């Protein structure tokens, strides 16, 4: 696929209290670095990331890092790819406003990306029903027990199921993010991004699973 060089592809990332720092920061680094390397015709980043939280107060990530999101749920900014990091998700799973927003924005996004226990938030909206998915190794059994319709994969770093990508825990989100960059814009950009980050990445396609009927795994989605 030749990327659209006239308009950036925007990744909208949900933030919440007790979000895992690397779940958030790893994919942010991948997509923002790729955006520095790939420019539009008028020299804008071809990929950009914005963050969204339930309110405008600072989010307290795991370990105490405080982050202020770019937008609130009420502002509901436009974006192309929904990114849902993990962390301690118990409180968010019972927040109907967040879950309703996730369910709605999943329907309007070209691609949804769940990282680590972000899979629990997607599962709570029904987005993973009947589909292959993965999460942190510590949480795979719980995910399968609570949502038995999910085909939980325990042997992969990430699962690509067309319009839905999920990754295993924490650092696996970096691998899956590079996979998404390669899928959307070509493996050359993914490898340049990994090199710029000084990250050793192997595009192991044995970790890709498909079969939902929503688009073959590895098939590029149009940004628009």
Explained architecture:
The protein has helices spanning 21-37, 90-93, 96-108, 118-124, 140-146, 172-185, 187-196; strands at residues 9-14, 47-53, 59-60, 66-67, 71-72, 81-84, 111-115, 132-133, 151-152, 158-160, 164-167. It is an alpha/beta fold. It has one domain (9-207): 3-Layer(aba) Sandwich (Rossmann fold). Strand 1, helix 1 and strand 2 form a beta-alpha-beta unit.
Descriptors:
224 residues, alpha/beta, Rossmann fold, 7-stranded mixed beta sheet, two-stranded antiparallel ribbon, disordered C terminus
Brief summary:
The chain is of the alpha/beta class and 224 residues long. The protein contains seven helices and eleven strands.
The portion of residues assigned to helices is 25-40%
**Strand share of the residues?**
15-25%
Shape: globular
CATH architecture: 3-Layer(aba) Sandwich
CATH-assigned fold name: Rossmann fold
- Strand order in the largest sheet: 5-2-1-6-7-11-10
What's the CATH class, please? Alpha Beta
- Secondary-structure element string: EHEEEEEHHEHEHEEEHH
Largest sheet: 7 strands, mixed
Annotation field: number of helices: 7
Enumerate the spans where pLDDT stays under 50 for 5 or more consecutive residues.
210-224
Q: What is the SS-derived class? A: alpha/beta
Mean pLDDT: 89
Corresponding CATH superfamily? Class I glutamine amidotransferase (GATase) domain
Q: Total domains, how many? A: 1
| DSSP E strands, number | 11
Gyration radius from CA atoms, angstroms: 16 Å
* Through-space gap between termini: 13 Å
